[in-house]
Design a protein that fits this description.
This protein is 3% helix and 48% strand. By secondary structure, it is mostly beta strands.
């Protein structure tokens, strides 16, 4: 997703940094940027046909697809939150966030866009990213709008707080290659886990999920057990995301020649392409 970084002053006013979720790596279609439904039964994704991007919903059990947007403007980077799907659209010439219901109705500009911060399961611990002295830093936020800086790096991005609120993982681009770092939620005991980008947590908080380079310098979906300090690469892919129950991993890969959406178990087994048949 592409970042549109807000000023720290604007973020502090509302404890929100819309930039944190506006990141989209430039990738050629046809099928990109999948997002899980809250119940894990469906996904939405961006499908590109003849240069036009639209949002499509896929029911995983039946394989049924439903196109939710219908226009000649580009609609992409969907994010499913609750009963709302957010997406970026250039239909008004700005590339701003829009929102719609999960059946595709009530499409309209979104007042804020998707939630930019990462929160613990109980909502008590909140982390976000924002500009800081010409770079990006990770901040802890509270309901009163106060931001407390947690990182010293100039390019610390994509923070994710563990479900229990104890730890934060994030991407550090001060290093080459970029690395995945972990710290306590108060910013203490910061240390590097691995090279990689795009970090997120398993629902049980035991495993960090990200992409990392293999020996051939190709991106692989990677899991890292933070308690046992064990790293495993599960296969070629980028932008991985655990299912809500933690049993499956959704990711993108161009292993068949074009970017498609794939699914596998959390052990890297049962790999299958969800969108290849639609090409």
């Amino acid at each position: 997703m592409s970042r549109n970084i807000l000023s720290l002053a604007a973020v502090a006013a509302c404890c929100i940094n819309v930039a944190a979720l506006l990141i989209a790596e430039q990738m050629v279609g046809p099928n990109l940027h999948p997002s899980w439904s809250p119940d894990g039964a469906s996904i939405v994704f961006e499908s590109v046909t003849d240069g036009d991007s639209e949002i499509v919903l896929l029911d995983l059990a039946s394989g049924a697809r439903r196109q939710l947007t219908h226009n000649r403007d580009d609609d992409g980077v969907p994010i499913w939150e609750g009963d709302t799907i957010y997406f970026r659209s250039d239909r008004d010439g700005t590339g701003r966030w829009y929102q719609m219901k999960v059946d595709g109705t009530q499409q309209r500009p979104a007042p804020q866009g998707p939630a930019p911060e990462s929160r613990s399961r109980d909502g008590r611990v909140c982390v976000t990213e924002s500009q800081w002295e010409g770079g990006l830093s990770i901040f802890r936020c509270d309901p009163a709008g106060k931001l407390t800086r947690l990182t010293a790096e100039r390019h610390a991005e994509q923070p994710a707080v563990s479900p229990d609120g104890r730890y934060v993982i994030y991407e550090n681009r001060d290093t080459e290659p970029a690395g995945i770092y972990m710290m306590n939620a108060d910013g203490s005991e910061r240390h590097r886990l691995s090279d990689g980008t795009d970090p997120s947590w398993s629902p049980d908080g035991r495993v960090a999920l990200f992409k990392s380079l293999n020996a051939e310098k190709a991106w692989e979906v990677t899991v890292y057990d933070v308690h046992q300090a064990v790293k495993r690469q599960l296969g070629l892919g980028v932008h991985p995301a655990f299912s809500p129950d933690g049993g499956k991993i959704l990711f993108m890969s161009d292993r068949t020649g074009g970017n498609e959406i794939w699914l596998m178990s959390n052990e890297g087994e049962g790999v299958k392409c969800l969108t290849c048949a639609a090409r």
